[in-house]
Amino acid sequence: MYQPMSLQTSSMPAPSLGQRYRDVRALSMAIAAPLSAEDQNVQSMPDASPIKWHLAHTTWFFETMILSREPGYEPFDARFDAIFNSYYLGLGTPFTRAHRGLLTRPSATEVKAYRAHVDAAMEKMLPHAGPERRTLTTLGLNHEQQHQELMLTDIKHAFFHNPLLPAYRPASPEAMDATPALDWIEHKGGLAKSGYDGKDFAFDNESPRHDVLLRPFKLAARLITNGEYSAFIEDGGYARSDLWLSDGWALAQREGWKAPLYWLEDGQHFTLNGVRPINAGEPVAHVSFFEAAAYAAWAGKRLPTEFEWEVIAEAHPTAGQFLDLDHLHPRAANGETRMLGDAWAWTRSSYDPYPGFQPFDGKLAEYNGKFMVSQLVLRGGSCVTPADHIRTTYRNFFPPSARWQFSGIRLAEDIL
């Protein structure tokens, strides 16, 4: 039975939670480690944030949502509350998102000290934390994992706008893969269940579990590859208005889209590991919903609903590439069924509340519910999603124009 956030309790004992806290916080610093202070302050567009801001905001979350309630806790700097609040209007007026790159102060060094200050207080609190504090800490860690993914996608976008096209981390050359065959998984349709009903952590937008009615369909066992998407381009996919939704066509023409974001000329594309040859066997990434829908129309298929994706993923929870700092790009499926990892799969489902949806309580009520409009659901995680952060019920969401995330294409088809 789903319960509001304040009533949930974590089954994880305090020592295990303490180690998880240390591991997650350390990974954020490992992601930032290759970056200079200048790198950490850059903001390439309003939808992205500086790395330094991500490091500080995730720290602000623990300080504001948990430590501020602890007797005797002294904030590192009370002024930080005004600049590292993301969108919680109930906690004040957040600093303008599009201007986060103007925050040259506090410095990266001060932000590191801020994290150390909050970490020390959390380490002191966790061994004695009750169920509510443990639950809030678990939420804070999952929140930070969301930002770890954003850190990598945001710095990739920033580096792409540098004429030097710098690599975030160099990587060794890899073998090129041919486009593998596309297999399908059939489902007979009928009444199915969707949503989370377990005892471990899940976000409020994943509940309650409820009935959905599915028509017979089949779902691709893997994501569409670079090689398959190249065929769409070569067949004039970006020049055929009949394949595109109206808003997508207007946007593609206005912005001059000819290929996925980060694709370059001469068969190259920009990756976090630098400029690399486009590997035909790897899942295509950095496409908008509009591009995904146009490709599906070209292929004579459609995009799945999030419920179709979920029912297949629950039966086949097979994984591809998740966050590995040595391999920051999707991996070729090579004929395997791959439902999780590699690239987020756009669905045809609007990001709406489930029947009976209840947001988190108190300060956290703004976490997800306020964004349930004008966005589409993506499922499955990507090559920059921490592996222990994903579930088959996990709902990501972006506007249909978004391209800077590792978003890809999985096809579906009706069985008539």
Your description of this structure?
The protein has 416 residues and is an alpha+beta fold. The protein has 2 domains: 156 residues, Up-down Bundle (Four Helix Bundle (Hemerythrin (Met), subunit A)), CATH 1.20.120; 231 residues, paralog of FGE (formylglycine-generating enzyme) (Alpha-Beta Complex). The protein has 10 helices and 11 strands. The strands form 4 sheets. Strands 9-8-7-10 form a 4-stranded mixed beta sheet, covered by helices on one side. The chain has a 3-stranded antiparallel beta sheet with strand order 1-4-11, covered by helices on one side. Strand 5 and strand 6 form a beta hairpin. Helix 3 runs antiparallel to helix 6. It is globular, with a radius of gyration of 21 Å. The N terminus is likely disordered.
Summarize, please.
The chain has helices at 14-32, 37-41, 51-65, 81-84, 108-125, 131-160, 226-234, 246-255, 289-298, 306-315, and strands at 184-187, 190-194, 210-214, 217-220, 268-271, 274-277, 344-350, 376-379, 396-398, 407-408, 412-414. Helix 3 (51-65) packs antiparallel against helix 6 (131-160). It has 10 helices and 11 strands.
Mean pLDDT across all amino acids:
93
| Beta-strand content | 5-15%
The level of helicity is 25-40%
CATH superfamily of the largest domain: paralog of FGE (formylglycine-generating enzyme)
CATH class membership of the largest domain: Alpha Beta
Measured distance between first and last alpha carbons? 36 Å
CATH architecture descriptor of the largest domain:
Alpha-Beta Complex
CATH topology category name of the largest domain? paralog of FGE (formylglycine-generating enzyme)
